[in-house]
Design goal:
This protein is mainly β. It is built from four helices and 18 strands. The chain folds into two domains: about 130 residues, no CATH class; about 100 residues, no CATH class. It has a nine-stranded antiparallel beta sheet. Strands 12, 13, 14, 15 and 18 form a five-stranded antiparallel beta sheet that branches. The two termini are about 45 Å apart.
Length: about 325
Amino acid sequence: MHRFTIDRAKDRPDPGVLLHRSYHAHAVPRLMAVCRLLGHKPVVDGYDSQYGPEDHRRSRWVCCDRCGVRPEPQGPLGADRWNIGDRYTGTLPGPWPQSPTGALGAELVIGRSHSIGADFKVGNSGSENVLAAHIGLGPLGALYVHTEHFGQWLQRRLNPTGYESRETGFTIFEGRLSWQLWAKRDHWSKSDPKWMRGSFSIDPRDHLFGAQKNHKLSETEKVPVVVRMPEGDSHDVLVHLEQWETRRNLGRGCTFWRAEWESEAGIPVRNHDWKGDEYFSSSWVIEGVTPDNPRWPYLVAAAAAEHCSRDRARYNYRAPEAA
């Protein structure tokens, strides 16, 4: 068995987070007490797809209906002869593995997290993570767990065919409670029943005064400015201001100005060895910046430079060396 941990806080330092670490255990022996006592229960497994080359759209193989282990070598079966789920009575293509193993993983956040809620995932027949779960407690922290190979008996009982993982849980975010009940994790269609997923407001102000809505009132023209970074690099950007109003059906509304900027090349703020640099592009509210101040474009450029500098410090950005 091989165990290791990763300190996630190094990549995303946050003063509101006391601990952010992931834990992994690989090559963990699987118990499989029933299979070791009674022997494996061979059944036909596989898939039927409408995509890809014709000779690759259907496939069959043998696996244990209880623990999901496959013989080694696996060996293909005839898709026209065998149906998925049939009890396999033929000769095994190879012996059952003697010491099957799996993996367990967890990620723990103590302090500020990004969610309040909980969910439980049952993977599909091709999922790397067979089972996964999460609980988020907002300012207190969050816990994520997952298994690899462990839990295949449950996965084969609940979600044996297809390549759609299923998720059940709830989330509270910005005054709304959302839920999923055995919903497809990465797919949504109009044919899904309404009970499968939905949301409703739990903010009492929405029920007393109506839902809060934002409406853009006006905007300025785009103005070219230069964002100068402390490292010496400069970037041409276009900035403009947008005036927005937020209000409910009852009561007064309030207006605010939002600054936005765009840059074709972007401003790099984070290094990645294999993905390439990440670039900052966003919009935000800057206190006191309105078109009444004729120097507003330079104030927005200075705010963009400050914002990007903080991200560079947060991610330990290394600027490319001059040629």
